[in-house]
Amino acid sequence: MPSCVLAYSGGLDTSVILGWLQDEGYDVHCVYVDVGQPCEDREAILKKAHDCGAKSARIVDAQEEMCRDFAFPVLQWQAKYENIYLLGTSIARPLISKVCLQVCREVGADAYAHGATGKGNDQCRFQLAAEALNPDIKIIAPWRIEKFRKAFPGRTELIAYCEQKGIPVKASAAKPYSSDENCLHISYEAGKLEDPNVCGVDIVDFGMTVSPQAAPDAVESVSIQFEKGIPVGVNGKKLSPLQIVLELNKIAGRNGVGRIDIVENRFVGMKSRGVYEAPAMTVLYHAHQTLEQLTLDRDLVNLRDRLSPEVAQMVYYGFWYVSKMDALLAFIKEAQQPVTGEVVLGLYKGNIINQGRTSPNSLYDEAIASMEGGGSYNQTDAEGFLRIMGLPSRVQARARARKY
User: Fold this and answer.
1) Which of 253, 306, 323, 390 is deepest in the core (most CB within 10 A)?
2) Catalytic residue at 93?
């Protein structure tokens, strides 16, 4: 029989897909890639997969790798999709594909299946990553297959199939929205959120953050240590990338930091509305940029900022394993060499306040910047500088005067 690796969550959709793939004649190897999604009993998920006929099932914990090798390089780029979204879901998908493709090699499978729909971004991220890692892999996306969609036009048919096959699922009432969580963030979309005129805060039951109104009435200070643009500690304690994210999720979350509401442009061309919370990454982006203000020169920051939207777009679309991204990641690693130091932030009711920043590589020279007399900056030098800088403007002004 042909074999297939399924990116498996144990939920309704992938449970049905597991049974359907077997009906189509596949041996199915289920892979639950742990990127920090909530799950009360992972062993129960594996047992369920085996009970439902999976050839094999395994859990792969990829949380540390996601923070270290995916989220933190994107942080170094200060990459935000459409200037606001911190790419929490986008970052996870190429890693999930990488893990599943590794399992494909181990078990000799020639197909990779996932449960992403044909309307969203995740199908792009899964497939573009998989084909870059193995151009010969067969991608099975059941929601893009007419036969599958005809068999399961709605939730009722999915539940009926599980009952027929003896597949245990929690057939609860549909929520007014859907959510996707990992250790970096939670995204909320669909349902009532599809009306962009509805207040998302009134609908969403946020899982990582309290509302700013319910946050403490006192500023909480937090210090973050960086080495070469990478976070390495919180409040003076050295931590792993995952530990940093989890610790800051708690600190920032209890202070109401990290919520956004956006109408974004999907890769497939439509606009969609999403509500996101990413407490740790919001604080890290702010702290990182604050430290860069001390340590990076103007022209290098300007170059990075011109390229940053392109990096964000590549991550959002799913172009992670391409030569262009390799080159961009190599560039940012070199550009971030001076970004070492500590930033102290005050968190208060959803706000982030700069309280202090220090670096052994600081380019800030108080003797030059001082507004007091006696500094090392000679203001007379500005006369010649401005005459040279203003030369093109003066020439153009005279030409315009002659013409008009």
Assistant:
1) 253
2) yes
The reply, when asked if residue 305 is annotated as ligand binding, is no
> Is 179 a known ligand-binding residue?
no
Clarify whether 178 is annotated catalytic. yes
Task: For residues 149 and 327, give the distance between their C-alpha atoms in angstroms, rounded to a whole number.
Answer: 40
Instruction: For residue 48, give the nearest of 14, 25, 21 by alpha carbon.
Output: 14
87: three-class secondary structure by DSSP:
coil
Task: Judge whether 357 counts as a catalytic residue.
Answer: no
- Quote the CA–CA distance of 340 and 230 in Å, as a whole number: 8
HSE-up of residue 156 (Cα within 13 Å, Cβ side): 2
Q: Cα separation of 272 and 268, whole Å?
A: 11
Share of the chain above pLDDT 70, in %: 98
Predicted pLDDT at 369? 84
| Catalytic (active site) residue 381 | no
What is the residue extent of each domain of the chain?
3-165, 178-296+338-358
- The pLDDT confidence band at residue 174, using thresholds 50, 70 and 90, is low
Q: Return the pLDDT at 171.
A: 56
**37 closest CA partner among 106, 96, 121, 84:** 96
Tell whether residue 117 is among the known ligand binding residues. Answer: yes
Evaluate the CA torsion angle 256, 258, 264, 267 in order and state its sign.
negative
CA distances from 147 to 8, 12, 140, 306 (A): 21, 18, 13, 45
264 is in an annotated binding site: yes
Same topology for domains 3-165 and 178-296+338-358, yes or no?
no
Residue (of 61, 38, 53, 83) closest to 285 by Cα position: 83
178-296+338-358 fold = Argininosuccinate synthetase, chain A, domain 2 (3.90.1260)
Q: Hey, what are 193's tokens?
A: 């959120």
Is 125 flagged in the annotation as binding? yes
Tell me, yes or no, if the pTM score tops 0.85: yes
> Exactly one of 97, 122, 179, 273 is catalytic; which is it?
122
Report the top-level CATH class of 3-165: alpha beta
Query: Residue 339 is which amino acid?
Result: V
Per annotation, catalytic residue among 41, 51, 149, 178: 178
The distance in angstroms from the start CA to the end CA of the chain is 82
